[in-house]
Design a protein that fits this description.
Its main location: membrane. This is TRGC1 protein. The protein is 19% helix and 41% strand. The protein is α+β, with helices and mostly antiparallel strands. It folds into 2 domains: 87 residues, Immunoglobulins (Immunoglobulin-like, Sandwich), CATH 2.60.40.10; 39 residues. The protein is extended and about 65 Å long.
Length: 169
């Protein structure tokens, strides 16, 4: 498939491709409470091209201090992309509504951190999933931990070989 990508200046990106653009197929917010903080993860999946704007807002004002936007990653099974952004707030703001907004050339949407239809038991309170997505975050963390472990193992093996080389030289 033909694909051309050119970046101008500090952020203007031109993508020329045979594939038609497609809006995100799925978007959701996950919630994790830990000690005195709550982290909301906004996951936006299966869109093309990878150009998307993700922001967090509170009462219409954009939040920049506690928000982090990850880089878009390409799926292993296709040409589409996904992205995650997260917001960390103090636990006392638990009842406050925050919004994850995204703008893609095919769609715009706003997701709320508060959904009235979701109820949790006390055991689930510290790991509530606002939009039930199964173990996606666990799988992403597991895959990342596995890759870090492999990299560290390779790095320590290289150091071992270098030390052996200088010892027996």
């Amino acid at each position: 498939m033909g694909y051309y990508n050119k970046v101008f200046g500090s952020g203007t990106k031109l993508v020329v491709s045979e594939k038609a653009s497609s809006p995100p197929a799925n978007s959701e917010i996950l919630r994790k409470k830990h000690e005195n903080q709550i982290t909301y993860v906004c996951l936006i999946e299966r869109f093309y091209p990878d150009i998307i704007r993700v922001t967090w807002t509170d009462d219409g004002k954009e939040i920049t201090d506690q928000a982090v936007k990850g880089d878009a990653w390409q799926s292993t099974t296709g040409d589409d992309y996904s992205i995650a952004s997260w917001l960390t707030v103090p636990a006392e703001n638990e009842d406050k509504k925050y919004y994850c907004k995204y703008e893609h050339e095919e769609a715009k949407a706003s997701l709320s951190t508060q959904v009235d239809s979701v109820t949790t038991t006390p055991q689930e309170e510290d790991c509530k999933i606002v939009f039930n997505r199964g173990n996606l975050m666990y799988q992403l963390m597991h895959r990342t931990a596995y890759l870090v472990y492999i990299i560290l193992l390779l790095k320590s093996s290289m150091y071992y070989l270098i030390v052996l080389f200088f010892i027996y030289r």
